[in-house]
Amino acid sequence: MARRKKIYEGKAKTLYEGPEPGTIVQYFKDDATAFNAEKHDVIEGKGVLNNILSEFFMLGLGQIGVPTHFLKRLNMREQLVRSCEIIPLEIIVRNYAAGSLSKRLGIDEGTQLPRPIVEYCYKDDDLGDPLVTEEHIAAFGWASQQDMDDILSLALRVNDFMSGVMLAVGIRLVDFKIEIGRVYDGDFQRLVIADEISPDSCRLWDIKTGQKLDKDVFRRDLGSLTDAYTEVARRLGVMPNNPPAPGKPQLVN
């Protein structure tokens, strides 16, 4: 499709004006970043895999009645989404201890939590996306109490769906983060899952071996990120017709 006006460029995606009012074209880049962009690389094929996988998850959520901003995939790197007002929060759902939670609370990575824990971070790269409480959210007016009730419900529904889907292909959903947007129909507002759901925004471990199949592969220099994401897509049955070349070292079939 013809290139349109750029609206915003982030670390992993670029947003363009959509073909119709109220739509946006979301382009998935090959850039990989970690530690608030202190670590950066360009990994061929990553954007293609994230586009395909995010489409798969968004369509699945829509089928069970969870509203998303996703409309359709346009090509290997672009998808058409609804324009929405992003609530300035990252919503993190944790099923097992890992990453910052393990560091903050001294819990061994991989420890199953008593129940899913939902955390909130304020979206601000300059501040390092700090952890915030519902008290902060209410005080600064980032979301109403009704919004927070709806966000919690949406986050747990996504967790139920994602956990089941990944378990069926031998992958443990350790944790994930989502973003929520507001869509307006006249005076009526509803909340939708926005941004993306992909191995960039989830921790995914092989149930049998514990092998990491997510961005921790890049964060911790554990091998080929392309191979890890390709394995997730292969297990879910959504490998693209022209898959990206495998990284090095290559996996032997």
From TrEMBL:
<dbReference type="GO" id="GO:0009236">
    <property type="term" value="P:cobalamin biosynthetic process"/>
</dbReference>
<dbReference type="GO" id="GO:0005829">
    <property type="term" value="C:cytosol"/>
</dbReference>
<comment type="similarity">
    <text>Belongs to the SAICAR synthetase family.</text>
</comment>
<dbReference type="InterPro" id="IPR033934">
    <property type="entry name" value="SAICAR_synt_PurC"/>
</dbReference>
<dbReference type="GO" id="GO:0006189">
    <property type="term" value="P:'de novo' IMP biosynthetic process"/>
</dbReference>
<comment type="pathway">
    <text>Purine metabolism; IMP biosynthesis via de novo pathway; 5-amino-1-(5-phospho-D-ribosyl)imidazole-4-carboxamide from 5-amino-1-(5-phospho-D-ribosyl)imidazole-4-carboxylate: step 1/2.</text>
</comment>
<feature type="domain" description="SAICAR synthetase/ADE2 N-terminal">
    <location>
        <begin position="6"/>
        <end position="235"/>
    </location>
</feature>
<keyword id="KW-0436">Ligase</keyword>
<keyword id="KW-0547">Nucleotide-binding</keyword>
<dbReference type="GO" id="GO:0005524">
    <property type="term" value="F:ATP binding"/>
</dbReference>
<keyword id="KW-0658">Purine biosynthesis</keyword>
<dbReference type="Pfam" id="PF01259">
    <property type="entry name" value="SAICAR_synt"/>
</dbReference>
<protein>
    <recommendedName>
        <fullName>Phosphoribosylaminoimidazole-succinocarboxamide synthase</fullName>
        <ecNumber>6.3.2.6</ecNumber>
    </recommendedName>
</protein>
<keyword id="KW-0067">ATP-binding</keyword>
<dbReference type="InterPro" id="IPR001636">
    <property type="entry name" value="SAICAR_synth"/>
</dbReference>
<dbReference type="GO" id="GO:0004639">
    <property type="term" value="F:phosphoribosylaminoimidazolesuccinocarboxamide synthase activity"/>
</dbReference>
<dbReference type="InterPro" id="IPR028923">
    <property type="entry name" value="SAICAR_synt/ADE2_N"/>
</dbReference>
<dbReference type="InterPro" id="IPR018236">
    <property type="entry name" value="SAICAR_synthetase_CS"/>
</dbReference>
<dbReference type="InterPro" id="IPR050089">
    <property type="entry name" value="SAICAR_synthetase"/>
</dbReference>
